[in-house]
Amino acid sequence: MSELLETARARVPSPVAVPSAALVGAGLVGGYGVARATGVRPLGGVVLAVCGAAAGRTWLASGGPATATNLGILYGASFGLSHPLAKKLGAWPSVLTVAAVNAAASWAAVDRFNFRPDGA
Question: Stretch 4-33: mean pLDDT, rounded?
Answer without folding.
Answer: 82
